[in-house]
Amino acid sequence: MPATDKVSVNDASHLLRRAGFGGTRRQARALRGLTRAEAVASVMDFGRAKRPPEHPDESEWQQNLRAQEWWLTEMATGADPLREKMTLFWHGHFATSWDKVDDQKLMNDQNHLFRTKGMGDLAELCTDVSLGPAMLIYLDNETNVAGAEQENFARELMELFTVGVGNFSEADVVAMAKAWTGHNTRGFVNRNGRWVYDPTYVFNKDEHDRGFKSLWGIRKRWNGPDTIQELVHGSQQQLTARFIAEKLWKFLATGTPSEAVLNRLTRAYVASGMKGKALVKAVLLEDDFWAPEARYALMRSPVEYMVALLKVTGWTTDEVPVRWYMEPMGQLLFNPPDVAGWGTNDYWLSTATAWARARFVTEWQWKIRDTPLLGGIAELSPGDAADLIFSTFDVSEPTRQTRATFETWFRNAHSNNHSWSIQPNSFVLGALCPEFQMA
Question: Cβ atoms within 10 A of the Cβ of 186, count?
């Protein structure tokens, strides 16, 4: 059985890139000789989840910046990279933005929810997200009341969060909106003569449409959380399972899965009772996940790229103002572009984002001269110099073209008496080579 196949160092490096943000050769060697099932189990063995720290005395903008930096640090140095990778997945799936919510504590609450329940029951996760103040505010269900229905959340709950486009009707959207009436926030309240906004969730039963509604041909007195149970564990389960399974495959594995792979993932997800942990495990144990064509087949998002660089260099977010470089790259944590979140793979292929990555690398290459990173590389042979760059950047399977490019550059630098530039420029080569920008 494939799950009993032994893992090579290159296999392990591939797993660490996909089930996290990359690892060291030492970490990869530690997995060598394990079966695939054992290696996957090791990256899924989580400790206690951490919560983003609170800084209530600081401005909202500063709190948002601190949260971004904290999460990037946790991704780069935390003990459970797969959990952080899945937290990032759910953040892009149930996308909400601090720009609209304007309350970092609410965003932190949601982030912690992804971290603690993202590997559990989808219905529980989806319900908690839906009733969370960040989502209530972001998709306007905070003001959804009977007689003045707000359809934003109702539509996205089906289109983006569960069954996907084409698997519901406009009549379903109307009925769904009515089902979610009364699930609001407290809104503006008078406290000591001053009107302030209270984001606490509240069910206003007098504002709820208690009439019969038809969803997917089922007529009854639907209430909001009931619809999630139907979507995840009821008549719409297969559609939801298939939609999430395909999306997670594209996030962790490679492009669109084959029909056979998607069917297996869907069955595993449903059989588990729609548990995230079972779906992740099924993805990581698929033969296609380990196939040669799946290696370096996903473009790293800016977050994944920056975290990988922090891991390589040992830099911290206190040293590097990462926020200012990540915005031009196109991705800021807690600030997805819209409710659809971020895409994957070729979504990140553009001239603008490529230049933004190059700008960061070239502006910070000279900092490398003050570190032992790639130290002594100028004294090596061209082949050994290339190997050092590859091992430093955890490029376990470079192409012949990349290797030839590195060796030719190294020889030219020496022949032109530019050996002084080899250490910092080798950082640029490693950071911008195709294999490092891919996972």
Answer: 14
Q: Name the pairing type of β-strands 218-220 and 213-215.
A: antiparallel
Distance, CA of 216 to CA of 235 (rounded, Å): 8
User: What is the pTM assigned to this prediction?
Assistant: 0.96
Distance CA 390, CA 378 (A): 15
Q: Which of 135, 119, 106 is nearest to 224 (CA)?
A: 135
Three-point CA angle 330, 332, 334, nearest 5°? 140
Question: 10 Å Cβ neighbour count for 379?
Answer: 10
Amino acid at 187: G
Quick: pLDDT tens for 234-288: 999 999 999 999 999 999 999 999 999 999 999 999 999 999 999 999 999 999 9
Distance CA 237, CA 364 (A): 49
The answer, yes or no, to whether residue 418 has pLDDT greater than 80, is no
Q: What does the block give as tokens for 391?
A: 């091992």
CA–CA gap between residue 340 and residue 305 (Å, rounded)? 21
Rounded Cα distance, 175 and 5, in Å? 50
- The CA distance from 341 to 55, in Å, is 26
Closest CA to 15 of 274, 355, 283: 283
Rounded to whole angstroms, how far apart are CA atoms 13 and 18? Answer: 9
Task: Please say whether the beta carbons of 210 and 203 come within 8 A.
Answer: no
